[in-house]
Design goal:
There is one protein chain. This protein is an all-alpha fold. 70% of the residues lie in helices and 0% in strands. Helix 5 packs antiparallel against helix 6. The relative contact order is 0.15.
């Protein structure tokens, strides 16, 4: 704490104005538990708003490119090939669309828009994580949120300004992707500063529901705004994330030091269980040099989990960007859904994602086996994807039930790797106590995953023009590869547990006298 009485962290971070106001009204400093709650709420709302702006594109896709063809009508079993397409001709949601996306290559153009956004997002993630370990995370997060809101709204402004240039929409999405890349490394690093390893999987599994909550709210808002013009589907979420960014700037304490908790003695005053101990407790300055990019890659487990996330996010983001489009272009129970109905129905995938993230975190805590849990979910996702493709068109009930199940199994490992695993590796013992690797490690893992997130939607834009069955084949193959990439870590975890059990059994078989000191 500086001599002026204004707390600063090791990086010179000032206490936010909102925190100073709260403490002035309280007549005393903010308690540790209250600060933890504030951090959870603000980071949850922050990343939920990021995902809400990200989700709008998938809802508007079917308005920009409304044509319905034989997309998705080819199933693997030959007896399911024939579908009645008469419903497409009578669907009132068929509109003229928006140039240049309503032409013959419109679906591919939308895929290229997704690639541009996610490609810049993935590249920016590596730089943002490196930067996040060196600057005030509160400022970085605020800039990212306000910038995201501005360029999300700019995409929608193309409707009001009657813009039909593909490069305008491409540029808006690319800049929005750059600002979005600041979000994940920042929020994970902030949460990692405040919460310890005990029950980390469960806590972060619950906290990671912000992804699905953002997707659901973004879908519902974008779908509701379509009747006023698709521009509002971008403008409203853009305004919302900017407002949340302002709240982050005013109130987010990025570390315990900001509110005056600077060493272990202060933490112990509040410690009731392992969940209350910050991951990154006070360290000596000599250990506090930011970790290099190559050094972070060499941390055991970073590479396999990063590559696994590449394929996990390929699957998850294909659903994120294309599920509403798929639902509105595929006959379900003999009918085609309107764009709005498809957007609302697609939220069930994210409902499953909430359950999957919490379940994966809880199971991994109980088993103390992150790789085994993640691999089990990814392998289980393969039959779930198959059944959703084959039987999802029978009725809305079947579609909804299988969609939720698929969401559980697809988003479970995705949530686990991007939160608890990243936090584990960012505070790995090989770092010798260095507290400034968390944002960099998070950026490497999620940045690599985001490359897969870019590839999946792009390939879907081309493959779906011929057959949605090809898309689902790609997704199942990706889930298989994701699980196989963790095989060595799974074997290591199982071997370690078996060895631990053998030692325990051996110790229990020893006579009592042999355990006593001579």
């Amino acid at each position: 704490m500086g001599s002026s009485g204004e707390p600063r962290s090791r990086t010179g971070t000032k206490k936010p104005l909102g925190i100073q106001l709260i403490e002035c009204l309280r007549g005393g400093p903010l308690s540790f538990r209250s600060a933890q709650a504030l951090v959870l709420v603000l980071t949850f709302l922050s990343y939920a708003s990021y995902h809400a702006t990200r989700k709008t594109t998938s809802i508007v896709k079917s308005v920009l490119d409304p044509k319905r063809t034989h997309l998705g009508m080819v199933h693997w079993p030959s007896n399911l090939y024939l579908q009645d397409l008469k419903g497409a001709a009578n669907n009132t949601a068929l509109t003229t669309g928006w140039a240049p996306f309503n032409g013959d290559g419109g679906t591919a153009l939308l895929g290229e828009i997704d690639l541009a956004f996610l490609g810049v997002y993935a590249i920016g993630m590596f730089f943002a994580g490196h930067l996040g370990d060196r600057v005030d995370l509160r400022i970085l997060l605020t800039i990212g949120m306000v910038g995201t809101g501005l360029f999300t709204a700019a995409f929608g402004a193309g409707y009001w300004l009657n813009i039909h240039s593909f490069y305008y929409f491409l540029g808006a999405q690319m800049i929005a992707g750059l600002f979005q890349s600041t979000g994940w490394p920042s929020v994970v690093a902030v949460v990692g500063n405040w919460f310890g390893k005990s029950k980390r999987g469960l806590i972060m599994g619950i906290w990671n529901a912000h992804t699905s909550v953002g997707n659901i709210s973004g879908s519902l808002i974008a779908a509701a705004m379509l009747k006023y013009g698709w521009s509002w589907s971008f403008a409203l979420p853009g305004a919302m994330i900017a407002l949340v960014g302002l709240a982050v700037f005013l109130f987010l304490p990025v570390s315990p030091e900001v509110i005056g908790i600077e060493d272990d003695r202060h933490v112990e005053d509040y410690e009731k269980d392992g969940t209350d101990v910050p991951l990154l407790r006070g360290r000596s300055v000599s250990r506090d040099e930011a970790v290099g990019f190559i050094q972070a890659w060499r941390i055991p487990g970073v590479a396999p989990f990063a590559l696994c996330l590449f394929f996990c996010k390929l699957v998850a983001y294909t659903f994120l960007y294309w599920l509403p489009f798929y639902l509105s272009h595929t006959e379900i129970g003999g009918e085609y859904l309107s764009d709005t109905a498809a957007g609302v129905l697609s939220t069930l995938f994210d409902v499953g994602g909430v359950v999957g993230g919490i379940l994966a975190g809880h199971i991994s805590d109980r088993l103390d086996a992150r790789a085994l849990t993640a691999a089990s979910f990814t392998f289980s996702a393969i039959p779930a994807l198959f059944f959703y493709r084959i039987y999802g068109s029978i009725s809305l009930t079947w579609n909804a039930a299988l969609m939720v199940l698929t969401g559980v199994l697809v988003n479970g490992p995705y949530a686990l790797i991007t939160t608890a695993v990243s936090a584990d590796l960012g505070t790995h013992s090989s770092l010798n106590g260095n507290s400034r690797a968390l944002a960099t490690v998070t950026a490497i893992i999620d940045g690599t995953g985001s490359i897969g997130a870019a590839v999946g939607p792009l390939l879907t834009g081309y493959i779906s023009a011929r057959s949605w069955s090809g898309v689902f084949t790609m997704l199942m193959a990706s889930a298989l590869i994701a699980g196989l990439l963790l095989s060595r870590l799974v074997v290591a975890e199982i071997s370690a547990k078996m060895e631990s059990r053998r030692r325990t059994d051996h110790a229990s078989d020893l006579p009592v006298s042999s355990l006593e000191e001579p």
